[in-house]
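Researcher: Go.
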Amino acid sequence: MEKIIFKPIIFMLALFLALTQGAVAGAGVPDRIISLAPSLTEAVYLLQADDKLVGNTTYCLRPPDAQQKEKVGTAIAVNIEKVISLKPDLILATPLTRPDEKKKLENLGVNIVSFTYPRNFGEICTQFLKLGQLLGKEELSRDIVQQTEKEVEEIRTKSLKAPKPRVFVQIGAKPLVTVTQDSFINDYIEFAGGVNVTRDIKNTRYSRERVLTDNPDVIIIVTMGINGPEEKQVWEKYTALRAVQTGQIHIMESELFCSPTPETFVETLRKVSKILHSEYE
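Model: Structure:
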């Protein structure tokens, strides 16, 4: 069977990094950082810059030390006064943060860098390299991405030898919400050798009736505001589903599944691989 050629993202992004390096370097390496997203907080720790992290959100739970940092609000709402009192020279944000609050902070002279929601593994690595530049950790970020690419390729190559189970991923209950090809979560399924049954849909809102029609081999419930065990019991009532008949309904914690860094992407990918293929156990 043909081997997957997984071209290193490092080299594909060389031009991007060269073009942005001057602008980033000119801003200087920050000494006081605030993170407004769990994934960005984890990335700061992964880049060994947590000594400069002076604040984050109530949702920043990983690693455990992140829970001890000053809390400045949630990923959406920010306590402006608290932020200013911490005197940050860099705030790491996402599109979830309220635009009006970002604007207020910018008007107060605070440097804010926003990171978009990554649509795939490549964008996770791109953003991690950008963060490495911002924090003066370019070499470390490149090393981590290179190692991650190697591990991901190994998992993808193994998956070629196994059947391709059809998978439904649930990330919302009321309404029922799933994922398309425009989410890095789709890469978990495909890299592990599965088929995302909702890959090509346009609207992420779904229905249980459509899941019955899809009749997936595996259902993965992500605990993003969902009571996993209760939702699993709901699915188990649909005894015609293959996933119910074979006991292939699984619960995944959102803190790991939905907060991607290169490190957590591989960690989650391995878990998904074990779910889809017993030979990985």
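Model: Residues 1-5, 10-26 have pLDDT under 50 and may be disordered.
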